């Protein structure tokens, strides 16, 4: 069923840059309230889509509904001005107003309320992103992570009906990324505002997204829950973008610090990973290279691999130099083996197999 | 007489600069931010006074604003007042000559700031005027100030167009550059030297101020 409470988009946008080829974005998707992640290689049309939702670019035709508000509809002649859309934006480089202090930046969208009320509103918004203590600093004095927090507070302060994020993490280091990812998830849950988050980092998409929209060459090639899209790339473009990486979101069950591993439930399949710095009960995003999985046709004993998972081959697809095999355990693992291995082991659909995975082959994303 | 020339020069330049600062900033912003038909043609037309001999620009101004001019004639018939040979003509001539410099400086100043700031301001509920005043202007202020100073310097040194439109009437429309010309012609060498030094000093001070505000290479692109 097509969900539309978050974003309901069906547009054709033609751009005619003066010095390059015209570009056409043809996007149709509907997503739930949550974080809709738009993923795709550069040049896929992610930013064009974002600017169309924001109102900075006018689509040729179609409809854009965000958080229940119709922003653009060529049938009814609706085309709200940027300032009437109540859609917030956080740019890749934060883009705070350099001549205003942090509180001034956040208060900028609070309209013609009295000075005191604006200040209070700005501080409250900064509080929500954990940046109240830097209210009196100038943007030039902030770290990259702090800037993005202030940009988030600025965009959310006026109470928008949707929030757009244009690769907000791409300029940050890993710890800031991780911390800001948590903040983003908390903010979305706390406000109930649908987020549209553009990224070209698949780990980020899986970690944050409630819906994943894959764009390629101006077209939507796949929409769905991130983990499902990653486990079963329906289009070649998605597969190319996803690569041979397995991406999972799981719940940490318990830690065994003395033995150096953690147990994670990937959604029906429990695996052992290297020790994770995540509280039991919390979710974690993990990556696993398809090349790091060994496949056996018999139950293997006496192996150093911490994970021996029983499963069934669901599909084999030929890649250029190898074969990609999807194994249901019930969680789907993508395994890459050579053509020779397929022949020698007689691998085929429906065959029962075992997967051998070292605990440390799992790596944490974001 | 010399004092009058100095006072007229400073006052006319100040008024011309004030007008040019406002009109030039808005025009520069339009050229930098808005896509419209004939944008480059408009830019070329506005640049014309920079490349034409000032006397040619002054001639066109006479054709338009003179007693028999396109605009000047109906104004004269209605009010009995003509701009030619008045101090107002000094202001107009200075403004027209300084306008292209201000527009260029403003266009570059706005183009050097990230236009997404203005999009962000609009997404926060601000209309174009409020965005212009609270975001675009403060971000471009250094380049704009440099433009204002250049415009002032240009109108202070204005000679050809002023001569055509305002004449050279000592005590009425004779500005400092015109007074220097008169002094040289009539053999008053000391007066000419003093006036020249005075104008040079003002110009050097203005250029120093402009150099401090405008970053290297920001005056052209």
Number of helices of chain B: 10
> Which residues of chain A sit in consecutive blocks of at least 5 with pLDDT less than 50?
none
Radius of gyration of chain A: 23 Å
Total E-strand runs of chain A: 21
Number of DSSP helices of chain A? 9
Please write the string of helix (H) and strand (E) elements of chain B. HHHHHHHHHH
Largest sheet of chain A: 6 strands, mixed
The averaged pLDDT of chain A comes out at 89
Structural class of chain A: alpha+beta
Biggest β-sheet description of chain B: none
Termini separation of chain B (Å)?
42 Å
Oligomeric status of the shown chains? Answer: heterodimer
Task: Note down, in words, how this protein is organized.
- The complex is a heterodimer of chains A (366) and B (221).
- Chain A is α+β, with helices and mostly antiparallel strands.
- Helix content of chain A is 24%, strand content 34%.
- Chain A contains 9 helices and 21 strands.
- In chain A, helix 3 packs across helix 4.
- Chain B is mainly alpha-helical.
- Chain B is 77% helix and 0% strand.
- Chain B is globular, with a radius of gyration of 19 Å.
- Classes of the chains: A alpha+beta (366), B mainly alpha (221).
- The interface between A and B is medium-sized, with 23 and 16 residues.
Describe, in short, the structure shown:
The complex is a heterodimer of chains A (366) and B (221). Chain A has 366 residues and is α+β, with helices and mostly antiparallel strands.
Features:
heterodimer, A: 366 residues, alpha+beta, 5-stranded antiparallel sheet, B: 221 residues, mainly alpha, 10 helices, 0% strand, disordered C terminus
Spell out the blueprint of helices and strands.
The complex is a heterodimer of chains A (366) and B (221).
Chain A: E1 7-15, E2 23-31, E3 35-39, H1 46-54, E4 61-66, E5 69-73, E6 78-79, E7 87-90, H2 102-107, H3 115-128, H4 144-156, E8 162-166, H5 174-191, E9 195-199, H6 202-208, E10 211-216, E11 219-224, H7 226-231, H8 236-242, E12 245-256, E13 261-265, E14 270-274, E15 283-289, E16 294-296, E17 307-318, E18 323-328, E19 332-337, H9 339-345, E20 352-357, E21 363-364
Parallel strand pairs in A: 3-9, 3-10, 7-8, 8-9
Antiparallel strand pairs in A: 1-2, 1-4, 4-5, 5-6, 10-11, 12-13, 12-15, 13-14, 15-21, 16-20, 17-18, 17-20, 18-19
Helix pairs in contact in A: 3-4
Chain B: H1 2-33, H2 39-51, H3 54-65, H4 72-79, H5 87-112, H6 116-123, H7 128-156, H8 160-166, H9 176-185, H10 189-213
Helix pairs in contact in B: 1-5, 1-7, 1-9, 2-5, 3-8, 5-7, 5-8, 6-7, 7-10, 9-10
């Amino acid at each position: 069923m097509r969900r539309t409470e978050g974003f309901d988009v069906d547009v054709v946008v033609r751009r005619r840059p003066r010095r390059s080829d015209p570009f056409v974005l043809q996007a149709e998707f509907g997503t739930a309230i949550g974080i809709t992640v738009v993923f795709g290689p550069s040049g896929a049309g992610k930013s064009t889509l974002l600017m169309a939702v924001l109102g900075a670019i006018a689509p040729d035709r179609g409809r854009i509904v965000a958080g229940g508000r119709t922003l653009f509809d060529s049938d009814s002649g609706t085309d709200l001005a940027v300032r009437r859309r109540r859609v917030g934006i956080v740019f890749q480089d934060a883009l705070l107003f350099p001549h205003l202090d942090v509180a001034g930046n956040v208060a900028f969208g609070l309209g013609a309320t009295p000075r005191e009320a604006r200040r209070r509103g700005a501080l409250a918004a900064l509080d929500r992103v954990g940046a109240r203590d830097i209210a009196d600093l100038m943007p030039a004095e902030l770290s990259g992570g702090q800037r993005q927090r202030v940009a988030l507070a600025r965009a959310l302060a006026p109470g928008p009906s949707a929030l757009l994020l244009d690769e907000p993490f791409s300029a940050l280091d890993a710890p800031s990324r991780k911390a800001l990812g948590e903040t983003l998830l908390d903010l979305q849950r706390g406000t109930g505002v649908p987020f549209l988050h553009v990224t070209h980092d698949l780990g980020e998409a899986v970690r944050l997204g409630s819906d994943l929209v894959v764009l390629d060459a101006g077209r939507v090639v796949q929409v769905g829950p991130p983990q499902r899209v990653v486990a079963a790339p329906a289009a070649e473009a998605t597969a190319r973008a996803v690569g041979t990486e397995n991406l999972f979101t799981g719940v940490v069950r318990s830690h065994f610090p003395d033995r150096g591993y953690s147990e994670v439930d990937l959604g029906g399949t429990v695996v052992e990973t290297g020790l994770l710095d995540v509280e039991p009960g919390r979710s974690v995003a993990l990556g696993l290279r398809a090349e790091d999985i060994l496949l056996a046709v018999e139950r293997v004993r006496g192996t150093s691999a911490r994970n021996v998972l029983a499963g069934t081959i669901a599909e084999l697809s030929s890649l250029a130099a190898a074969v990609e095999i999807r194994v249901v355990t019930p969680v789907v693992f993508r395994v890459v083996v050579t053509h020779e291995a397929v022949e020698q082991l007689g691998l085929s659909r429906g065959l029962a197999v075992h997967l051998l995975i070292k605990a440390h082959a799992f790596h944490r994303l974001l | 007489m010399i004092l009058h020339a100095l006072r007229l020069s400073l006052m006319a330049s100040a008024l011309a600069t004030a007008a040019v600062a406002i009109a030039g900033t808005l025009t520069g912003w339009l050229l930098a931010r808005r896509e419209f038909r004939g944008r480059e043609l408009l830019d070329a037309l506005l640049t014309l006074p920079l490349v034409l001999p000032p006397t040619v620009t002054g001639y066109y101004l006479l054709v338009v604003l003179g007693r028999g001019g396109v605009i000047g004639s109906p104004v004269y018939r209605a009010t009995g007042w003509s701009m030619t040979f008045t101090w107002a003509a000094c202001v107009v001539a200075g403004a027209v000559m300084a306008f292209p410099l201000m527009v260029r400086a403003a266009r570059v100043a706005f183009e050097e700031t990230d236009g997404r700031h203005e999009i962000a301001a609009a997404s926060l509920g601000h209309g174009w005027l409020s965005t212009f005043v609270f975001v675009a202007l403060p971000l471009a202020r250094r380049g704009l100030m440099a433009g204002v100073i250049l415009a002032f310097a240009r109108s202070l040194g204005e000679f050809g167009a002023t001569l055509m439109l305002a004449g050279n009437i000592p005590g009425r429309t004779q500005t400092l550059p015109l007074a220097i010309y008169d002094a040289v012609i009539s053999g008053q060498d000391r007066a000419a030297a003093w006036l020249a030094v005075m104008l040079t000093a003002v110009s050097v001070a203005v250029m120093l101020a402009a150099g401090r505000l405008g970053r290297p290479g920001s005056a052209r692109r």
